Structure formats: structure tokens, C-alpha cells
Amino acid sequence: MRFDTKIGIVVRDDLAAWQRLNVTAFLAGGVAAGFPELIGEPYEDGSGNAYLPTFRQPVLVYAADAEGLARVHDRALARDLRVGVYTEDMFKTGHDEDNRAVVRERAADDLPLVGLALHGPKNAVDKILKGLSLHP
């Protein structure tokens, strides 16, 4: 099935495995909260157990170095896409309020990005992510 939109998450390639997974999970949650129309119906197994709904379309995860992340960030902002961010500083905080505070302390071009998430028209997202490889 082809979709008119695309969900992309980009994670810095030098993070520890647990950090990459943590960043991806946080950013996917941001996309789900920011675009609730992307969420499908709850699941149910043959025994009648209910399960949480998931995205209705694939989420593609990419790897990039710090420069690649900065490039994606600039491209996404230039196209007025809503972007989820995860910064290096957020690894040192304990909760959401502190996360927002450390992001607010820095200008856009000074964010120590370790991950980004975006959703938008497929063509626009493809152009923004051009040159990146899928996460191994």
C-alpha cells in the first residue's frame, strides 16, 4: 500500500543502542500525539484480549551524523513541517518539563540534536531526508 504521507525518524549514528531506541520511542510518541489521525484502531486477538492501536502507516528510521541531523532540521523548518526533536541535553533530565526547558535554552542552530521526527507529504519528507540511509 502506498501512502501520501511519510513518517521519518532520524537518529544520530554514534549513540549507544539503548539511546537510539529511547530516542526513537520518544520521537514516535511525539508524532502520535501531534498527528492523532495517523493512529489506527485498537487490536484484538482471537481470545478477545484488547491491545493498543498503532500507526496506520510505516515509520521509517534513518541514521545520520550530527551534520546530517542539522541538515534535516534546517530543511524541515524551511518547509514549515512540524518537527519533533530530541537533544543530547535531554539525556540528563528527569522529566518532560525539564526536557522542554533544555530545548528552550538554545537557539535552533545551537541544538545538540540526537534525533528528529517528522511527518508530512511524502515528496517533501523524501526531499528532506535525501541522502540518508535507513538505520541498520
Can you describe what's shown?
With 136 residues, the protein is an alpha+beta fold. The protein has one domain (5-134): Bit1, CATH 3.40.1490. Helices cover 35% and strands 25% of the residues. It has 4 helices and 7 strands, in the order E-H-E-E-E-H-E-H-E-H-E. The strands form 2 sheets. Strands 5-6-1-4-7 form a 5-stranded mixed sheet, with helices on both faces. The chain has a two-stranded antiparallel ribbon with strand order 2-3. Strand 2 and strand 3 form a beta hairpin. The chain is globular and about 50 Å long. The relative contact order is 0.26.
List the helices and strands and how they pair.
Blueprint: E1 5-12, H1 17-34, E2 43-44, E3 50-51, E4 59-64, H2 66-78, E5 83-87, H3 96-104, E6 113-121, H4 122-128, E7 133-134
Parallel strand pairs: 1-4
Antiparallel strand pairs: 1-6, 2-3, 4-7, 5-6
Main β-sheet, in a few words? 5 strands, mixed
The CATH class is identified as Alpha Beta
Task: Give the CATH topology.
Answer: Bit1
Count the E strands.
Answer: 7
Largest sheet, spatial ordering of strands: 5-6-1-4-7
Query: Which stretches are poorly predicted, pLDDT < 50 over at least 5 residues?
Result: none
**What best-fitting shape do the alpha-carbon axes yield?**
globular
Q: How many separate domains? A: 1
CATH architecture designation = 3-Layer(aba) Sandwich
Helix content: 25-40%
Protein name: DUF2000 domain-containing protein
InterPro entries: DUF2000 (IPR018988), Pep_tRNA_hydro_II_dom_sf (IPR023476)
Pfam family, one: DUF2000
Organism: Actinoallomurus liliacearum
